[in-house]
């Protein structure tokens, strides 16, 4: 099976988020980056498990600048066979989806994996867009997947229950928690990754109908006020006058 | 094994989350290669997943988490800078240092498990062993299928190893080994021991002793208030018949064990930074969360003095380690330069741990926080692999040309 895993670079989960002075971009100063955990822990590892069980190859793909190579190399260290970086500054979800689809359309991938969302902007859009652009079925939020020949049985967690679906390859899938378990690369894998191919593909040009205008941080949490349990009048006054909830 | 697995899961469930964040005040990451950063991220992830959730309980009970021996092999923490043909990682010395730093960020005892195996067992076999010995032992040591230990220090000969009394006598196709070694990390668990002993001419030789050889025992040392999660013991040899094929053929004299110690000390110079970073990180977070006099204690000048001095000293140690690593990669790191870094960085880490303990107030003495455990561990690290004072005398001798040892 020929498997493609699309991966994003995201700020580490402990990053303190700040924006540039005009609030139009993330302030990247001092930010440490990681591979998006849904892409790494679930999508990539499930793809590797399928390859190990049935043979084939796992390609990882990232849309981004050369600084992303360390994150891509980690995917190779975990076990992907080769990597492709589309040399574009990832802007809108649609633009990223078009870049991916443009590359993938002639490659004959059986399954295209994504994480269910990227933990920076939480869009969850690119995978669905790629499925549409490639004219493939799309299964989102998959938490379990078994292959039988070219047919997959996939479970997805839905509100209050589990939905089971059957789909034939080729298809696009977005991975949720449960699809696989995190694999930590070992030192041998890290050294082997240095020798694996990382192909850089020039970006295609598309009109981008979406532009980011600005970002805002949520308002800072106020101080906690402790009120004497005997002083109910003060509590009522604060709820009425300050919190304005009663 | 199943019961053990269930116990691990139970302990992990109770443990607090490891919230460690790395601190790189001087952007030293810009000096590192991609594989260094990946190795650091991988070992840190492993420590957060496997070490942090269990370490307080094992240290509390003075038990060694022996299930980690095999896992350390799986991640590639044993002999990462040895060639891949013998099961090593083929990495450079900076990568090795970074791996030690991340392991010691978890616990000095876990780092000790790995640095003994890599620097004191695999390295001498690789450097001084026969091709047959290398092929027999190194791949299994690299995976953790075999555990090794290193016997140099004796009950009456610590800082003065040249006075050793452990000895071998020629007996045809074998040597008869007699004597005792003390303070041996991993020894009660070890399958093999690299032992240094004097031959009949008084020349120090290295031997690979296997645990089932008759007359060889390795009793555990109890009652340590430091490195409580690491297992330490003695090596006792009573007329042990060691085949001559077990002698390391390519070294004679104390330079053999001393070159191994240089390797291990180099790793400690990096490792201690890990312990310091963990203490600093915990203290910094605590100073922002702990409120006294209606504001975080991090806002008070005396707390800021401690934190500012801690990160300054950590940054200096990081630069020292990086430069030493660069020299080591070029084959130019001298034993005296390694001594300076080991002495400085371990002392730095111990001072950082003590200051961090103060910032944590009373909580600092409990195992709710890692600080007191690191501090107690570092008392050992200050002493083993050449004491703080001996390393000072090595620097003293190096700059004056005069020997103050005796």
Which tags fit this structure?
heterodimer; A: 246 residues; Rossmann fold; nine-stranded mixed β-sheet; two-stranded antiparallel ribbon; 27% helix; globular; B: 406 residues; alpha+beta; Butyryl-Coa Dehydrogenase, subunit A, domain 1; Butyryl-CoA Dehydrogenase, subunit A, domain 2; Butyryl-CoA Dehydrogenase, subunit A, domain 3; four-stranded antiparallel β-sheet; 9 strands; transport (chain A)
What does this 3D model show about the protein?
- Chain B: It comes from Flavilitoribacter nigricans (strain ATCC 23147 / DSM 23189 / NBRC 102662 / NCIMB 1420 / SS-2) (Lewinella nigricans).
- Chain B: GO terms for molecular function: fatty-acyl-CoA binding; flavin adenine dinucleotide binding; glutaryl-CoA dehydrogenase activity.
- Chain B: Residues 252-397 form the Acyl-CoA dehydrogenase/oxidase C-terminal domain.
- Chain B: Residues 34-145 form the Acyl-CoA dehydrogenase/oxidase N-terminal domain.
- Chain B: This is glutaryl-CoA dehydrogenase (ETF).
- Chain A: Residues 23-210 form the Electron transfer flavoprotein alpha/beta-subunit N-terminal domain.
- The complex is a heterodimer of chains A (246) and B (406).
- Helix content of chain A is 27%, strand content 27%.
- Chain A has helices at 37-54, 69-78, 93-104, 126-134, 187-193, 232-241, and strands at 2-6, 9-11, 33-35, 57-63, 82-87, 111-115, 138-148, 151-158, 161-168, 171-175, 198-202.
- In chain A, helix 2 (69-78) packs across helix 5 and helix 3 packs across helix 4.
- In chain A, the strands form 2 sheets. Chain A has a 9-stranded mixed sheet, with helices on both faces. Chain A has a two-stranded antiparallel ribbon with strand order 2-3.
- Chain A has a single domain, classed as 3-Layer(aba) Sandwich (Rossmann fold).
- Chain A is built from 6 helices and 11 strands.
- Chain A is of the alpha/beta class and 246 residues long.
- Chain B is an alpha+beta fold and 406 residues long.
- Chain B has 3 domains: 16-143, Acyl-CoA dehydrogenase/oxidase, N-terminal domain (Butyryl-Coa Dehydrogenase, subunit A, domain 1, Orthogonal Bundle), CATH 1.10.540; 148-246, Butyryl-CoA Dehydrogenase, subunit A, domain 2 (Beta Barrel); 255-400, Up-down Bundle (Butyryl-CoA Dehydrogenase, subunit A, domain 3).
- Helix content of chain B is 52%, strand content 13%.
- In chain B, strands 2-3-7-6 form a 4-stranded antiparallel sheet, covered by helices on one side. In chain B, strands 1-4-5 form a 3-stranded mixed sheet, covered by helices on one side. Chain B has a two-stranded antiparallel ribbon with strand order 8-9.
- In chain B, helix 4 runs antiparallel to helix 5 (108-128).
- The longest helix of chain B has 35 residues, at 255-289.
- The termini of chain B are far apart.
- The mean pLDDT of chain B is 95.
- Classes of the chains: A alpha/beta (246), B alpha+beta (406).
- The interface between A and B is medium-sized, with 18 and 24 residues.
């Amino acid at each position: 099976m020929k498997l493609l895993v699309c991966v994003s670079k995201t700020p580490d989960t402990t990053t303190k988020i700040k924006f540039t002075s005009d609030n139009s971009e993330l302030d990247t100063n001092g930010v440490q980056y990681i591979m998006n955990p849904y892409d790494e822990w679930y999508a990539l590892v499930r793809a590797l498990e399928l390859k190990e069980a049935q043979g084939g190859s796992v390609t990882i793909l990232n849309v981004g600048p050369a600084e992303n190579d360390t994150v891509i190399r980690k995917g190779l260290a975990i076990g992907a066979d080769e990597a492709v970086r589309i040399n574009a500054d990832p802007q809108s979800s649609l633009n990223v989806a078009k870049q991916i689809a443009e590359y993938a359309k002639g490659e004959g991938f059986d399954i295209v994996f994504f994480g269910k969302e990227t933990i920076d902007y939480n869009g969850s859009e690119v995978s669905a867009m790629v499925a549409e652009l490639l004219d493939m079925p799309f299964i989102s939020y998959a938490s379990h997947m078994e292959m039988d020949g070219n047919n997959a049985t996939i479970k997805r967690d839905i509100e209050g229950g589990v939905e089971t679906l059957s789909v034939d390859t080729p298809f696009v899938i977005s991975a949720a928690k449960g699809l696989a378990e995190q694999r930590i690369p070992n030192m041998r894998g890290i050294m082997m990754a240095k020798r694996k191919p990382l192909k850089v593909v020039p970006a295609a040009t598309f009109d981008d109908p979406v532009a980011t205008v600005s970002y805002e941080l949520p308002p800072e949490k106020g101080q906690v006020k402790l009120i004497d349990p005997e002083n109910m009048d003060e509590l009522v006054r604060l709820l009425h006058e300050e919190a304005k909830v009663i | 094994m199943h019961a053990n697995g269930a116990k691990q899961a139970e302990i992990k469930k109770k443990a607090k989350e490891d919230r460690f964040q790395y601190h790189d005040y001087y952007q030293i990451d810009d000096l590192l290669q991609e594989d260094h950063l990946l190795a650091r991220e991988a070992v840190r992830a492993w420590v957060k997943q496997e070490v942090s959730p269990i370490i307080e309980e094992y240290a509390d009970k003075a038990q060694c988490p022996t299930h980690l021996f095999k896992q350390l092999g799986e991640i590639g923490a044993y002999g990462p800078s040895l060639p891949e043909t013998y099961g090593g990682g083929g990495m450079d010395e900076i990568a090795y240092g970074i791996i030690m730093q991340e392991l010691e960020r978890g616990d000095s005892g876990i780092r000790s498990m790995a640095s003994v195996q890599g620097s004191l067992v695999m390295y001498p076999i690789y450097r001084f062993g026969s091709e047959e010995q290398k092929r027999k032992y190194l791949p299994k040591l690299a995976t953790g299928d075999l555990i090794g230990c290193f016997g140099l220090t004796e009950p009456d000969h610590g800082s003065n190893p040249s006075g050793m009394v452990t000895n071998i006598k020629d007996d045809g196709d074998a040597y008869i080994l007699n004597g005792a070694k003390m303070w041996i990390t991993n020894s009660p668990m070890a399958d093999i021991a690299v032992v240094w002993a004097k031959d009949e001419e008084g020349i120090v030789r290295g031997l690979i002793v296997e645990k089932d050889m008759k007359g060889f025992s390795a009793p555990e040392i109890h009652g340590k208030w430091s490195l409580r999660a690491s297992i330490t013991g003695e090596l006792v040899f009573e007329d042990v018949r060691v085949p001559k094929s077990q002698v390391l053929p390519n070294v004679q004299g104390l330079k053999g064990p001393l070159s191994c110690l240089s390797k291990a000390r180099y790793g400690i110079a990096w490792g201690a930074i890990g312990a310091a970073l963990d203490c600093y990180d915990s203290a910094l977070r605590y100073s922002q969360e702990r409120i006294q006099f209606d504001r975080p204690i991090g806002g008070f000048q005396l707390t800021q003095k401690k934190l500012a001095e801690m990160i300054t000293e950590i940054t200096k140690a990081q630069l020292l380690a990086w430069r030493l690593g660069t020299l080591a990669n070029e084959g130019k790191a001298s034993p005296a330069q390694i001594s300076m870094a080991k002495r400085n960085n371990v002392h730095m880490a111990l001072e950082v741990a003590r200051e961090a303990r103060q910032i944590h107030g009373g909580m600092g003495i409990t195992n709710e926080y890692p600080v007191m455990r690191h501090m107690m561990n570092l008392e050992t690290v200050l002493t083993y692999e050449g004491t703080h004072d001996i390393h000072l005398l090595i620097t003293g001798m190096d700059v004056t040309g005069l020997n103050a040892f005796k």
